[in-house]
Specification:
The chain is mainly α. Helices cover 56% and strands 0% of the residues.
Length: 96
Amino acid sequence: MTAGAPRPEQALRLLGDTIRAFRKQRGLTQRALAARVGLASTYVSAIERGQRNVTIGTLLHIAAALQVPLSTLLQPLEARPDLYALPPPESLQFLL
């Protein structure tokens, strides 16, 4: 990976840490959160460790189960734009 390139694995770890913090704050085990969301507890564990790139649908279910807006789970990423920075606009010309 080149210098300045996005680091999705670090973003996933930060997201996982955030989910874990809210889960614990609500007194839920991984198994209880998994049951609320309809996932295996091992999958929730992998999300919290940043080892799974979850879909927006899964994140919406997790946010609902934790009773927080989805934006709350993503908020810590706002302080770390280096983890998801987009390429310069001129390199996106092909999308137009």
